[in-house]
Amino acid sequence: MASLEPTTLRGDRVVLEPLAHEHHDGLVAAAADGELWNLWYTSVPTREGMRQEIDRRLALQDTGSMLPFTTRLVEPGSGGPGRIIGMTTYMNIDRDTPRVEIGSTWNAASAQRTGTNTESKYLLLRHAFEEFRCPAVEFRTHWLNHQSREAISRLGARQDGVLRSHTRAGNGELRDTVVFSILAHEWPMVRDSLLYRMRPRG
């Protein structure tokens, strides 16, 4: 497995930067875009909880179990990094297999359904399969989060199963977790499909 050091992944729409404390204010503004902390089916920090969430993710990075990123838009014209729109990670990292889960992802409401999430997932998948040489990449989501389940399926991931009463949601209720994965031999077809979807139209 390639070294899991913090790295920057660049696309045409987004840049995934290693999470850092100086991203705090931009992340607070991104979460406020849509008041994402009110979504019952996912966990997005409030203004008061953002610093603690950054600390949590960086602590998991120190243990080797997570590689967190801040998602930025690419500035039109200059191609440089623009405003922060969210967070994403490689998590539950298994170095021996090697295997990663892509998760703990959220994006500002105004950035949703604009192609930014598709490109973010493409960048993370490409790095996992082509640099880390993972035989599989996993995704998990709440059974009742139909938007997330549909988005994961559109990526080309297949459902592995459902972990019933798997963990507690932010409101304390037990949740069923749906597990998806993409295997290494499926990546070329998934890659080509994502590249087609991201191709400029018109």
Automatic annotation (TrEMBL):
Q: Does the keyword Transferase apply?
A: yes
- UniProt keyword annotations, A-Z: Transferase
The UniProt record lists the N-acetyltransferase domain at 13-158
| Leader sequence segment | none
Q: Native species of this protein?
A: Arthrobacter agilis
Q: Which InterPro entries match?
A: Acyl_CoA_acyltransferase, GNAT_dom
Q: Does the keyword Transferase apply?
A: yes
Any one Gene Ontology MF annotation carried by this entry is:
acyltransferase activity, transferring groups other than amino-acyl groups
**In its UniProt entry, what is this protein called?**
N-acetyltransferase
Q: Which domain of life is it from?
A: Bacteria
